[in-house]
DNA sequence: ACTCCGATGTCAGTCGCTGTCATGGGTACC
DNA sequence: GGTACCCATGACAGCGACTGACATCGGAGT
């Protein structure tokens, strides 16, 4: 049929994760990944901008979830309610069946500083996204930034709990519970 | 006197920042930096683990500020009060005279994704530091994580404001104000 | 049948980074 | 004052990530 097998990008990703888990990220060469897929190093870099990207590709999609979440929030919602809506919107991208894959991916990332670095940048991107959304809804600086930072914090905390929790509790639930705990944690301003 | 000029590490750093500002980070080779200092590439890597490190070296020092801040907090302080003490402790490492240098450094970092990446990792390290300190003071998970995340958020937000503010307001003041605003932002839990 | 497209291969080259060994002035110790 | 060691640096070879330029050749459209 076709000259080349379809799904090249996905096959590269699958081979990469398998090799990373088997012998480690640093110990795996891009050439190894390409060879395992029957391709060349050059072709790998045509699909992924760099070696780490093979683990982070697709992460732009669920950023839209944060945006949609805020857009779906009712009129007159407070900043933190907007944040909550945002997180819930993103949670749709993480159904239970995606958990095993996310766990394997996280195992690789946690084992390597360079990958953790990239991951923390992605979190910063999430925060920026939420901040922009809040400002579209009239929240002004520096409250927009603070609220967005809180959003990023709660999301990453909730996500890690979602991965670790064997009860398979939905990400949404964890997010809401953490937000509740956060509200309890921050005492009302006595008015300095 | 000595066989080699003293302060090699600092001279490398100065040359690096100058070159980065002049022609950009990517466009500057480690060899360029070394040559500008009258040294070799190999020697650069003996002082800095990698090219980016030349901009982040010394960042471990003020992490101690967070630790000392929490240790100095009064007995019976709440989680958020501990966080406040932590941030104030770190602020000591950023006196007004350090601002110009920090600004130049930030200019370079903001202009390059790879550097922003490293920076966001540093922020994650700060959060982890605060979390550990909070747990030493009896705060338990997940509150310790949430509070620490809030701390990291407020610190980075305050720091950027400190850099941008032409009034040269002390970092401490900005931190306290942001924390006050945060408390106002988070509504008391109505008790779900 | 002809043409063009586009995913892939090939190859050469740059740059970040590392291991290894050599060099030679300082310094301490006898 | 000689000798032995120390250690910051140089010199060199090499690996892996990544890029640019050009060639290849089945398939789709005309």
Describe, in plain words, how this protein is organized in 3D.
The structure is a homodimer of 192-residue chains. With 192 residues, chain A is mainly alpha-helical. Chain A folds into 2 domains: 47 residues, Arc Repressor Mutant, subunit A (Orthogonal Bundle), CATH 1.10.10.60; 128 residues, Tetracycline Repressor, domain 2. Chain A is built from 10 helices and no strands. In chain A, helix 5 runs parallel beside helix 8. The mean pLDDT of chain A is 94. At the A-B interface, helix 8, helix 9 and helix 10 of A face helix 8, helix 9 and helix 10 of B. The structure holds a DNA duplex (30 and 30 nucleotides). Chains A, B: This is TetR family transcriptional regulator. Chains A, B: Keywords: DNA-binding, Transcription, Transcription regulation.
Give the topology, please.
Two copies of one chain form a homodimer.
Chain A: H1 8-23, H2 30-36, H3 41-47, H4 53-56, H5 63-71, H6 79-91, H7 99-110, H8 113-136, H9 143-164, H10 171-185
The structure holds a DNA duplex (30 and 30 nucleotides).
